[in-house]
Design a protein that fits this description.
Elements lengths: L2 H11 L6 E8 L6 E8 L2 E8 L2 H15 L3
Antiparallel strand pairs: 1-2, 2-3
C-alpha cells in the first residue's frame, strides 16, 4: 500500500482527514521541472520532499508525515 493511502487511512481512523492539505511548487526550466511538495496537517508541515516527478515527491512527503506521526 502506498504511503499516500496509508496516510489517508490513518487520518480517517483518527478523524483528521479534513485537515490534510498539500502544497505543490514547481521550479526550473519547463523541460526539467523539479517539484517540491509539502504535506500539511492542521496547517503544520509534517513532510516535505523534492523530486523531478510530482507524484514521487508527494509519496515521499507522505512517508515523512507518517514517520512524524509514529506510523
Amino acid at each position: 500500500m502506498s504511503a499516500l493511502n496509508r496516510l489517508n487511512n490513518y487520518l480517517q481512523r483518527t478523524k483528521r482527514e479534513a485537515h490534510l492539505s498539500w502544497e505543490e511548487t514547481s521550479y526550473g526550466p519547463p523541460n526539467a521541472l523539479d517539484w517540491k511538495v509539502k504535506c500539511k496537517i492542521n496547517g503544520q508541515v509534517y513532510g516535505e520532499a523534492t523530486s523531478r516527478r510530482k507524484n514521487e515527491a508527494k509519496e515521499m512527503a507522505a512517508t515523512m508525515a507518517l514517520q512524524r506521526l509514529g506510523q
